[in-house]
């Protein structure tokens, strides 16, 4: 959490306005040479040929770029804004229930993940509102588009990366608190890895943010893809190694072994903790893969004025949708880590996905006992 706050502080300190755009000058504006989108008048964009043209991304058309063909954009934004509202309700519902059960601590990795989900959803909503204002023509001079949009997107990146890097820390806490793995040597390694992950979070998120403020969208897209690929490798390698540390014969048993495969509740508990780690890693792998595809669609089409603006617009908003789904999975994993306390308080525990159950009847004693290992990641 301290790393995330430091990144946000750096982001705010280095954020500056981009200055006024040149005024629209009729046909002469279409002949303007440009390097950045802010070199063009409002409602125009700098395309790959180095010339300004109407910004089809927001549906601007016509000889003066004052026309609109943004019906598709408005529909997409309405759906995503509604999804953000539902997601944030689920986030705050989880926060409220965890606090009611005395199962929330802001300084823990699980607390960091939940707060990152809340912050990410907030900035996603703000970013979508900027898109909506510009699309509807409520930002005629592109002041909000040029100043608020990169700032909000940068803060969104910081929150998203903070939450994604905190998940492996949660996993490591599960391991170092499990029987047989809680040696002083393992705890020392855990602290070293935790420090490295925090440093990576700060460097990568502030680097992306700084490039956004400099208008280097293409470089940002490439850097973001590289960071996401690094996360893919981290999640896949870490989840498989940690699963074996928690449950020695995990891969022999498989994801869904029968009850007769366990000789006691401790073995069953260890397998369940390992399974939850692997399932989350697999879900994140699929979502990040889709995220990268949407990001590449945006970066490869936004500067081509021969491609309809709705295409890069769908690319950007496609990865916002992926972010929302990923936040649901991460939030519900936090709930799973506090399953025992939530159930004692009469609250439900989602197994994964977008939504949570607000109430549920108590589970059996055996099911309650099988959550002991993962509970430690929230209680620490």
Descriptive tags:
single chain; 380 residues; mainly alpha; two-stranded antiparallel ribbon; 3% strand; disordered C terminus
Walkthrough of the structure:
The protein has 380 residues and is mainly alpha-helical. Helices cover 66% and strands 3% of the residues. The chain contains twelve helices and four strands. It has helices at residues 2-14, 71-100, 109-135, 143-176, 184-213, 217-246, 250-253, 265-301, 310-337, 339-344, 365-369, 372-379, and strands at residues 44-46, 52-54, 60-61, 67-68. The strands form two sheets. Strands 1-2 form a two-stranded antiparallel ribbon. A two-stranded antiparallel sheet has the order 3-4. Helix 3 runs antiparallel to helix 4 (143-176), helix 3 runs antiparallel to helix 9 (310-337) and helix 8 (265-301) runs antiparallel to helix 9 (310-337).
Note the run of SSEs as H and E: HEEEEHHHHHHHHHHH
Q: Which stretches are low in confidence, meaning pLDDT under 50 for 5 or more residues running?
A: 8-18, 351-380
Span between N and C termini?
A: 14 Å
How many H/I helical runs? Answer: 12
Helix content: 55-70%
Strand order of the biggest β-sheet:
1-2
Number of strands: 4
Rg estimate, integer Å: 23 Å
Major beta sheet summary: 2 strands, antiparallel
Structural class of the helices, strands and pairings? mainly alpha
Query: Mean pLDDT, nearest integer?
Result: 79
Strand content: under 5%
Shape: elongated
List the helices and strands and how they pair.
Elements: H1 2-14, E1 44-46, E2 52-54, E3 60-61, E4 67-68, H2 71-100, H3 109-135, H4 143-176, H5 184-213, H6 217-246, H7 250-253, H8 265-301, H9 310-337, H10 339-344, H11 365-369, H12 372-379
Helix pairs in contact: 1-4, 1-5, 2-3, 2-9, 3-4, 3-9, 4-5, 4-6, 4-12, 5-6, 6-8, 8-9
